[in-house]
Amino acid sequence: MVYKFEPIGFIRSPYKEKFGIPRQPGLITEARGELVFSEPYSRPEAVIGLEGYSHVWLQFVFHQAMREAWQPMVRPPRLGGNKRVGVFASRAPFRPNPIGLSVVQLEGVQARDGEVVLELAGLDLLDGTPVLDVKPYVAYVDSIPNARSGFAPEPPAVRFQVRFSDLAEGQLLSRPEPDQLRRFIIRVLEIDPRPAYAGDTQPERIYGIRLYDFDLRWRIDGDLIEVLELAPPG
Ligand code: SAM
């Protein structure tokens, strides 16, 4: 049996590549984005009532994690990337049906310029992610404060302090909403965006993350991350 679904819309997100995206939603509330509904789902009446909710569930396709074959076990970054668990005990993008589920903040519902748009915050999604469905988050049923959470009982720890070079600071100040952008960049970096298998820190290495319309370039020095520049995308 094969079921066919088509996206109801697509995500606009500051995350332009997988590297740097938090591993779950809600970790970086400064990560603002949008769900833009596509035809024929772009109907203002289809979202009437949604403005009464603070959060929504998004069901989406991990469109950059499509593989022909699936593996029954995965190595979650949370376990250092060297221990395996069953794919259904994980939230890994690589799964038999590459479908993700995220609860995100709903900041606004807009029908403008012929588009129906949900304004969202706390995303863990790549720009262009196809969305299959939206449902309101209902606290009395969806929130289970005492639930056991397997190998991920706590949010990821803050690992680094983040500072900006003079060049990066100047570039930040020339952009709209610099304080918000500064907080966003700090949140992305302080929890260590590197994959679990990244190994020991190499002080000479310069890392890059594509965010918005720039390439964030940074390096690690002990417990400190220095943002070197917000470079034009290479
Ligand atoms: N909250 C969702 C869930 O539990 O189904 C996603 C969790 S998954 C571990 C989050 C990671 O998926 C992100 O850190 C990013 O690397 C990756 N990701 C996000 N959007 C993606 C997409 N459209 N295609 C492939 N990978 C994506």
Automatic annotation (TrEMBL):
InterPro entries: TrmO-like_N, TrmO_C, UPF0066_cons_site, YaeB-like, YaeB-like_sf, YaeB_N_sf. Keywords: S-adenosyl-L-methionine. It holds the Pfam family TrmO_N. Residues 5-146 form the TsaA-like domain. One of its GO terms (molecular function) is tRNA (L-threonylcarbamoyladenosine(37)-C2) methyltransferase activity. It comes from the Bacteria. Belongs to the tRNA methyltransferase O family. This is TsaA-like domain-containing protein. It comes from Sedimenticola thiotaurini. The lineage of its organism: Bacteria, Pseudomonadati, Pseudomonadota, Gammaproteobacteria, Chromatiales.
